[in-house]
């Protein structure tokens, strides 16, 4: 970090001392129709329309307005008109990148450039949200099809959680980001790092995670459900099936975390946070050129967090470090390499909440802070990932990309959570579930693809083709779980229990290993029969295989292998531009997911087939600064496993049979971006109903209706240093169980507030108050209860340069 800092300082000084050579800007003309307004939003719309990357420090654009531009002209001329009256100048640093600068006068009367920090789009990531100040996508997204498509051009529902919104709401973990995403529901029921929480979308669990578009294995432990957000520029959530790029998974949603990239000029920040329950966090980010000509750039991000919780005794901490280099091997070839490390630990951690009923059927009434974990229980995760990619731009508009990534992980959970048995009124009858999980995981992924335009019948179309795959392995010692000879699991008095109970001796009972491979070829094209009509067609052919071995110390080992060959996953979509603002669309996608259930012959059931149909309307206002969408959807699952009553597998287990599965249908409304100058909004409403083949409602513990809306407003005039905001998160009622053991959580709303004050041009303070009215509600009522966070606050102090 010291070496990088020195190099950055030297490069910045050199750039300031000497003139940077001009690079030939884009030629030709384009049609522009960009309304006037606050300069950051106008520049975002211009960058999208011109296909350019606009880099500038946030502070030089604050409070400035642009007259906009309309007409057909060269991108350079349009930019000059946009900047009229702002006092800013523009400079091309390469063929696709423009920086904005504010001339200042030196003491000797000479004109020099103000020290630059970068906000905007990095050369390797045109969709970058950092520095845009917006709650909507700053550029194209590839998460659905790997084609460069804007939200309006994508025939699926895509939500983008931008860097600005994550900073404004203080969303430091992926679970918090998803909890604020339209159409996504988090069922929090345990400490961070356990498997006691689930994410749902459109009625099904979310198991598909990507990082920079690289899919993660679905083997236990590979999900990125505990990722810290300091490393990431944005999160893109594609709702519905995403089989074209993932292959294996559920037709719920795919979550793509997009890493931060180095910037052509120097920027950075340090931030400190302190809040309720002794929570403290420090974060730093430094980025910029490492050599004088700017062809080698670097970025370093670090974060440390430590704190308690509203849950008694629970203590969580994490360490995060990220470094990435980006080099211009040639004018057309970009090489990126990086390393990411995250370490998470939760102590006195439970895997569940508290019992909902007494043994006699009556309802319990525990405090929100009750902790059912033993005082020696913990969860740890160590994740190390190295990655590299090479992008080459050909002269005909085509781009070839090669991605390689290797991830090594280790999880270790010492389990001891007191929800065993049935609770009597006198506090007896309960015990703990003890055990240990410990495994090492590795995944190596390779993907190669090409994208570009082609001519057909006198019109220009787009094509993407690629191949890729991964090999994933989980291996580790097996330890006793749940039942341990000679160990007393009982809790004498559940009401007064403070987690103190003898720690069991857990010696390895053997070892086990899981191997998973997936290889695929995929293809997608956007055909443009007319200027207003786009037809997107794609397909993926996959091979998947998984083998499992188990080797107990005192018995012969067992092995099982399954595979699926030639699985075809189609994709089809259509988008029609009704006007320059409004579009209508429809799409069909599918996905498959292997399952472990067996029939009476001991054979695994065929994979679940998921099909998703979606139709809707999208709008893009103010040149893309405000996006709106409305969608209806239908998801069907076949080969869903149901118990084959009275029949058993050869090993004596319950036999299952494949049946026509569940059906999910509903609608979603979303609005993100700038409503008026200085007024940002992000959120929407979602409704989902899930039923089985007989019409019986499923997942009654997941809300059918949710409303999420966050908004901020930067005050005008002499009050422009102050930004105020608020958030409302409402969900409908949920229930679980039947008869006297039916649990209900009525509909409720949680209100959050935020305010930010810009102390100086470089220093700001932000206060977030969550659950302002201290609403008491449960986030999970499945097998056990778990409460949401009470009222809490976090104060952040940030300095940028």
From TrEMBL:
Pfam name, any one: TonB_dep_Rec_b-barrel
Subcellular location: Cell outer membrane
Record has Endoplasmic reticulum as a keyword: no
GO terms classed as biological process: siderophore transport
Gene Ontology CC, one term: cell outer membrane
Secretin/TonB short N-terminal domain segment(s): 52-103
GO molecular function, one term: siderophore uptake transmembrane transporter activity
Bilayer topology term: Multi-pass membrane protein
Keyword vocabulary terms for this entry: Cell outer membrane, Ion transport, Iron, Iron transport, Membrane, Receptor, Signal, TonB box, Transmembrane, Transmembrane beta strand, Transport
Membrane spanning stretches: none
Location of the region described as Disordered in the Swiss-Prot/TrEMBL record: 122-145
Chief place of localization: membrane
Entry's family note: Belongs to the TonB-dependent receptor family.
Name recorded for this polypeptide: TonB-dependent siderophore receptor
Species assigned in the record: Azospirillum palustre
Higher taxonomy: Bacteria, Pseudomonadati, Pseudomonadota, Alphaproteobacteria, Rhodospirillales
